[in-house]
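> example.struct
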């Protein structure tokens, strides 16, 4: 995967654009705008996106389990499904909530598959790097209890400096072109942008809230 902008094309069940057909067209629009990769959720969406663009895909499956905190590709079942679909990179929750044994198992089972660790702290990123993840993403900063007061650029800077093998990807509330540019200038391999590009209800709310002030 080249360096540059990765666009996250996702819409959950309760969102207006929830549709594999729409996510395929969203990916096409992202490609036409200059994206070098797509992040997508579910095998169904990934299949449709492949029908529309020939770009590297970071694949995830969001799944809630009663006794598990992680929900981004949380078990081997989801990993197996993504491997069978043939995605370029599989992203998994690699925060401290995820068992280290599971993280070791997926890398051992699929030696030829590239994996991305979605983390929320510097320590989680370093752990993923040592375990052999190909990419470390700051995806979950601010979304876990242990990262509530963490500044994403500080974590990003330290991981870029200290990760020995993994390429560091900036993801998680990089909501402006200026923030994305700053991440690349700092040395991030790529930047993933989602809501600021592909979720019109959230984009609309930023404008509506600004007009109410």
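> example.seq
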């Amino acid at each position: 995967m080249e360096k540059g902008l990765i666009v996250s094309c996702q819409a959950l069940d309760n969102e207006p654009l929830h549709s594999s057909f729409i996510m395929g067209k969203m990916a096409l629009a992202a490609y036409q705008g200059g994206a070098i990769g797509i992040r997508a959720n579910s095998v169904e969406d990934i299949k449709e996106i492949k029908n529309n663009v020939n770009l590297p895909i970071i694949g995830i499956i969001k799944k809630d389990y009663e006794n598990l905190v992680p929900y981004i590709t949380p078990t081997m079942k989801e990993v197996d499904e993504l491997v069978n679909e043939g995605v370029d990179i599989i992203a998994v929750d690699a925060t401290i909530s995820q068992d280290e044994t599971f993280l070791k198992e997926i890398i051992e089972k699929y030696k030829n598959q590239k994996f991305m660790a979605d983390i929320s702290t510097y320590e989680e990123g370093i752990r993923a790097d040592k375990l052999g993840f190909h990419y470390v993403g700051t995806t979950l900063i601010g979304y876990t209890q242990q990262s509530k007061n963490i500044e994403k650029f500080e974590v990003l800077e330290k991981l870029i400096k200290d990760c020995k093998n993994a390429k560091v990807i900036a993801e998680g509330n990089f909501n402006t072109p200026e923030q994305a540019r700053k991440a690349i200038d700092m040395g991030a391999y790529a930047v993933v942008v989602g809501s600021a590009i592909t979720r019109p209800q959230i984009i609309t709310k930023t404008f509506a809230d600004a007009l109410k002030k």
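> remarks
The two ends are 42 Å apart (CA to CA).
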